[in-house]
TrEMBL record:
Gene, per the UniProt record: nagA
Gene3D superfamilies referenced in this protein's UniProt entry, alphabetically: Metal-dependent hydrolases (3.20.20.140), Urease, subunit C, domain 1 (2.30.40.10)
Active site: 265
Organism: Candidatus Flavonifractor merdigallinarum
Domain Amidohydrolase-related: 43-370
GO MF entry, a single one: N-acetylglucosamine-6-phosphate deacetylase activity
Keywords linked to the UniProt accession: Carbohydrate metabolism, Hydrolase, Metal-binding
UniProt xrefs under Pfam families: Amidohydro_1
InterPro entries noted in UniProt: Amidohydro-rel, GlcNAc_6-P_deAcase, Metal-dep_hydrolase_composite, Metal_Hydrolase
Organismal lineage: Bacteria, Bacillati, Bacillota, Clostridia, Eubacteriales
EC number(s) on file: 3.5.1.25
Name the record gives this protein: N-acetylglucosamine-6-phosphate deacetylase
Cofactor(s) needed for function: a divalent metal cation
List of residues binding Zn(2+): 122, 187, 208
GO biological process terms, semicolon-separated: N-acetylglucosamine catabolic process
Amino acid sequence: MRLTGGKVYDVRDGFVQRDVLIDGECIADSCPDGASYDLAGRYVIPGLTDVHFHGARGHDFSDGDAEGLQVMADYELSRGVTQICPAGMTLLEEQLVKVCQNAAHHRKNSKSGALLCGVNLEGPFLSYAKKGAQNGDWLHAPDVAMLRRLEDTSEGLVKLVSVAPEEPGALEFIKEVADEVTVSIAHTTADYDTASAAFRAGARQVTHLFNAMPPFTHRAPGVVGAAFDSDCKVELICDGVHIHPSVVRAVFQLFGPKRVILISDTMRAAGMSDGAYTLGGQDVNVKGKLATLADGTIAGSVTDLMNCMRTAVSFGIPLEDAVRAAAVNSAKAIGIYSRVGSVESGKLANLVVLDEELELKAVIFKGQVVHGSL
C-alpha cells in the first residue's frame, strides 16, 4: 500500500508531505506493487495510545469481563486509538487479580480491536483525602508484594502504578519498584518537598495533573511545581471539563510538548447516551461531557482520546504538539515506542487519516484499513 500526497506527522519536523509505504503489517522503505491512495489535503498521524482510561460502550476494565474488554478494544480502535493500557480503580486485591487475569487472557486471545499493551493500576495505593471517585473503603497502603502478585497475574502487563507519596511506606515502595513499572504520583495531598522526594526515589509520571492533588500556588507549588522541577511526564485530561483551556495552554508551555501525555480517563459511559452509570462500584450521572458522583465530584470522562486531542487543538495547542502528546509520549511512557507511536519504517502500520477539520476518515491497523476509507 502506498499513501501519497498527505501531510505526514514526523517526530522531528512536524508535518511534512511525503509518501508512506506499507508492506504487510509494517511501515516500510519500499513496498511491492499494490494499491496507491492520494491523501492530498489530509493528515496522516500515528495511531494514538491511551495509557489511562477505564471504560467505554457500557463496559469497565475493572469489571474483569472478557466480553466487555473486547467491546472496549473495538471501540477504541474505531476512534483511532490503536494501543490501549486500560486502568483499574481502587478495588480489593481479589478483584484486581481478576482484572489482571482478564487482561492477560485478552492479550493472548483477542483477534480484533486496539492492541492491549499494558495495565494501569490507578489504585489502591492512594490518599483517602484526595480519593476523588475512588472507593475509600478499598484503599490500601503501598505494598510491594501485592504489586508483584498483580504483575505476575497479568503476565507482565502492569506498566503503570499510581501512588500517593505521603502515605506511610510510599517512598520505600517507589524505590523498590521504580525499575519494574512506571510509578505515577496520584490522588495525593503531597506538598512540594514530599513530591520532590518521590521523583528522586524514582517516580516518573503524574496522574491527571491538577486533578485530585493540592493546587499550584505561588507559595505552595505542590505536586505541580515539583513535577515542573523534575524531568517527569505529566498526564492531562483535555476533555473541556477537567482542565480550563488557559491551563492546558500553560501546561504545554511550562512542561513542553515532550513531557505532556494526553489521556482520556473515560469511564463506561463513553460512546453512550446521558444517564446513570457506575465507576469503581459508585453511582455516576452523565450529562453531556460531565460525569459526576452524587456529591458532585467529577468521575472520569466520557470523551475519547481522539476527541481530547482535537479539543487540545481547539484550545490553541499546535496539532503537531497534540499528536506528540497523544501518540508519541504515551507510547514511550509504557515502553512500546520501538514498535508504535510514529510513522517510521519498521514500525507497525497503525495509522490514522484525518481531514483538514481533524475529523477521522480512516484507521489503518497492522497495514489494513479497519475503519473508514482512503
